[in-house]
Write a structure and sequence with these properties.
homodimer, about 190 residues, Tetracycline Repressor, domain 2, elongated, DNA-binding
Chain lengths: ~190, ~190
DNA sequence: GTCTATAGCGCGATAGAC
DNA sequence: GTCTATCGCGCTATAGAC
């Protein structure tokens, strides 16, 4: 078990800070304190803040969709797959202290302050989630396990919006327990 | 039609700015430019930024729940009431330019950077929404119009989270049209 | 009630030694 | 690759004239 390199430590710290207080409330000074290096050293690894954000979003997106694709391609039932997908959000919510929201959810709120690259990364993350959710819902309908009314595309949007919003809402009030209850309700609705 | 007083202009401008870029990306200088007065004059009306935020949240909360209560107490059917409630969010989304999110949704993301007063105001807003939604859903079940599975409390959380998240997600991609489609899907699900 | 002027701080970023 | 030192800017906030 070798120690993480500095670049990784910076990314980890930046991500945690953004998930807690947001991009615009997070500074190089904050990262500096947490990692134990000077601000100038962070600029060596990430010349600008925009630069850091782009790298962070790339890393998280790769990580997240790798997990999502494993779920999609698994031999489990659609219901289990949907549960596992929702668990990805719960994991974010319950890792470390309870104050964290979803990385892309936070940046969705701060969307209009991002540069065009990051703006497009957020947009792509939302689209890619919904595209994969459509596949998952379609699988469930084919097996007869899912019996909700309406179109799969609309239902995918309902689910994704609920998860993103639910993280923010339950962070303020109720925490993980409430989030889980909401997910259970969703599963029931999807099963019809 | 008398002109709005300065205090109101400041609140209106601050609200629009927060809904677009967030609290932490909005400055007294921005308000100053938009209203056409100097920064010092804003401090006369609102000594500190925290002060301004508290006043803004109070005003919006009063406004919003006055409308919500009118809907709840109206003689309409539960389905119409739910639609009208969702319309409150759509109105926010489609007023002025298309770049605006929900005021309390934005501050939910920036929750950890708020002072304790504003933090509690956000928490109360979320709770009060869900409490009233529970009443609305209960009414619908009693008339037989709503036929969703599970508990009304869980369903209220699903709906509120979806609306808050949906505003952020569709602001990035799809806009009002997508938001409306999502709401339609919700109505279908609630009716069972 | 609005103004000019400014204090005091934190920010992102850079130069250059080691 | 990390450091010290510093620049220039924008921020919230205040003092005091009008």
């Amino acid at each position: 078990m070798t120690a993480k390199d500095t670049r990784t430590q910076i990314l980890d710290t930046a991500q945690e800070l953004i998930q807690r207080v947001g991009l615009n409330a997070m500074s190089y000074a904050d990262i500096s304190t947490a990692v134990g290096i000077r601000k100038a050293s962070i600029h060596y690894h990430f010349p600008s803040k925009d630069n850091l954000v782009v790298a962070l979003l790339d890393r998280f997106s790769s990580y997240f969709f790798r997990l999502f694709d494993v779920i999609l391609d698994s031999p489990e039932s659609p219901e289990i797959k949907l549960r596992r997908y929702c668990d990805l959000f719960i994991a974010t919510l319950s890792s470390g202290n309870q104050d964290k929201a979803c990385l892309y959810g936070m940046l969705g709120a701060e969307l209009k302050t991002l540069n065009s690259s990051s703006n497009e990364q957020v947009l792509k993350f939302y689209r890619d989630n919904q595209t994969r959710l459509v596949q998952l819902l379609q699988q469930g309908r084919e097996t007869g396990e899912f019996k909700f009314p309406g179109q799969v595309e609309s239902m995918a949007m309902v689910i994704f919006s609920m998860l993103e919003g639910g993280i923010l809402v339950t962070r303020a009030d109720g925490g993980v327990a409430q989030f889980r209850e909401m997910v259970e309700q969703l599963i029931q609705v999807v099963k019809g």
